[in-house]
């Protein structure tokens, strides 16, 4: 399971690198993994300090790679 989260984190990273800041539903759709794995991958990247979260849109946070 941890390996799957790591692989999904790589997919999320590449998606954000290509597409730029995106809301959760676009990331989940673009990565093509189950939503739970995608959410865990986002948490993994956030914990590593690789993501920023823009919460200016109420109820629709946007995730982006930290520069």
Structural write-up:
The protein is α+β, with helices and mostly antiparallel strands and about 70 residues long. It has one domain: Arc Repressor Mutant, subunit A (Orthogonal Bundle). The protein is about 60% helix and about 15% strand. It is built from three helices and three strands. The protein has helices at about 1-20, 25-30, 35-45; strands at about 20-25, 50-55, 60-65. It has a three-stranded antiparallel beta sheet with strand order 1-3-2. Helix 1 packs across helix 2 (about 25-30) and helix 1 (about 1-20) crosses helix 3. The mean pLDDT is about 95.
Helix-strand pattern, N to C?
Answer: HEHHEE
Alpha-beta content class: alpha+beta
Number of helices: 3
Profile the largest sheet.
3 strands, antiparallel
Low-pLDDT regions: none
Q: Over all CA atoms, what is the radius of gyration?
A: 11 Å
What is the CATH third-level topology name? Answer: Arc Repressor Mutant, subunit A
Just give the CATH class: Mainly Alpha
Number of strands: 3
Distance between the termini: 29 Å
Mean pLDDT across the residues is 93
Main β-sheet, spatial strand arrangement: 1-3-2
Instruction: Give the CATH H-level superfamily.
Output: Winged helix-like DNA-binding domain superfamily/Winged helix DNA-binding domain
CATH architecture, please? Orthogonal Bundle
**DSSP helix fraction:** 55-70%
């Amino acid at each position: 399971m941890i390996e799957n989260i790591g692989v999904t984190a790589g997919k999320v990273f590449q998606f954000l690198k290509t597409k730029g800041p995106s809301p959760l539903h676009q990331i989940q759709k673009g990565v093509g993994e189950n939503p739970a794995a995608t959410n865990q991958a986002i948490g993994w990247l956030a914990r590593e300090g690789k993501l920023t979260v823009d919460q200016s849109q109420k109820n629709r946070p946007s995730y982006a790679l930290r520069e």
